[in-house]
Design brief:
Elements: E1 6-11, E2 32-33, E3 37-38, H1 40-49, E4 54-58, H2 64-70, E5 84-87, H3 103-108, H4 111-115, E6 121-126, E7 129-131, H5 135-145, E8 149-155, E9 165-169, E10 175-180, E11 189-198, H6 199-211, H7 219-229, E12 234-239, E13 243-245, H8 249-258, E14 286-287, E15 292-294, E16 297-298, E17 303-304, E18 307-309, E19 312-313, E20 318-319, E21 324-326, E22 329-330, E23 335-336, E24 341-343, E25 345-347, E26 352-353, E27 358-359, E28 366-368, E29 373-374, E30 379-380
Parallel strand pairs: 1-4, 1-6, 4-5, 8-12, 14-17, 15-18, 16-19, 17-20, 18-21, 19-22, 20-23, 21-24, 22-25, 23-26, 24-27, 25-28, 26-29, 27-30
Antiparallel strand pairs: 2-3, 6-11, 7-13, 8-11, 9-10
Keywords: ATP-binding, Carbohydrate metabolism, Glycogen biosynthesis, Glycogen metabolism, Nucleotide-binding, Nucleotidyltransferase, Transferase
Family: Belongs to the bacterial/plant glucose-1-phosphate adenylyltransferase family.
Organism: Clostridium grantii DSM 8605
Amino acid sequence: MLKKEGIAMILAGGQGTRLKALTENNAKPGVPFGGKYRIIDFALSNCSNSGIDTIGVLTQYQPHVLTTHIGIGTPWDLDRNNGGVSVLPPHMKQDGGYWYMGTADAIYQNIQYVDTFDPEYIIILSGDHIYKMDYAKMVKFHKEEEAAATIAVIDVSIDEASRFGIMNTNEDGTIYEFEEKPEHPKSTNASMGIYVFDWKLLRKYLIDDAKDKNSNHDFGQNIIPKFLSNGLKLMAYPFSGYWKDVGTIDSYWQANMDLLDPNNELNIHDKKWTIYSVNPNKPPQYIGTTAKIKNSLLVEGCTVFGTVKNSILFPGVHIGKNSIIEDSVIMANSKIGDNVIVRKSIIANDVTIRKNSVVGNADEITVVGEYSDVKSNSVVK
């Protein structure tokens, strides 16, 4: 048995249907973001920067991209013999097998994996949020408070509170009630989907929950309410800083645009908290003599001959002559021909937009799915 004080489990099997074409062939945590990352890179990098070297990534929907991207964990310094990163899809057991039925069931099905490291604490994370956080500080808080469970919360506006699970707390931060997307919220402490549990205690509750045929096998709906009803101490861990659930096209687009604000709270240029990823083997970017670029992010392998404003270009993107790209996200290896206008759009990987076409408008976000071929002189809205 490999003894670890704490390990992390990242829930990364979400389908992300509200991201539409972006998740047709990819799980939500595997969606590209910010020019050179995938969404899951933030949770993995947070773990690495927090000194957590043992991580299970629980996959389910369209796992191929995520599995390939994570590999043996080298970019995050997780290619280790004692711990490291492990991809954990649903699997067959002696009594059969089935898909993960909920967040709690996903951990339950991997009890044997967790027990291998005999941890005192387990950190449960969502793999589909954009943020930077030191989990070590949260674990320290959990230990000092001698809590059975600690839940990270972020203050949201009262208008937004109905979209989240809300933790109602006493003045000392203890949680006395959990409300799932309440119509009339009593507080604005929104759950971030980040939990620290005492493993031995959680293990018992997971086993009991698995036997309950009426359970949804979910942390928010079942495990946390059961902790509360049994009088266990639950603490809210307040987080301040940038955090965004990029579960919709609007929030995904906005999170990308936030990176273009030089004063944004996320600050991906922070050398003290690097966001690591798999870097493609691409040549340097080339900016042609006819190019005009303003307030944009361009990475390796881009070739630009047109105008790029307030946009993000992923590796291998080509922008043709006299083309105008504004307020848009252009993903890897997409080719924009000459005399094309792209406004407020998300162009997925390996898209071709041929000459004299117009994509998008200033009123709403247009999405063009992977491998699409937009013919010359087309209008896409």
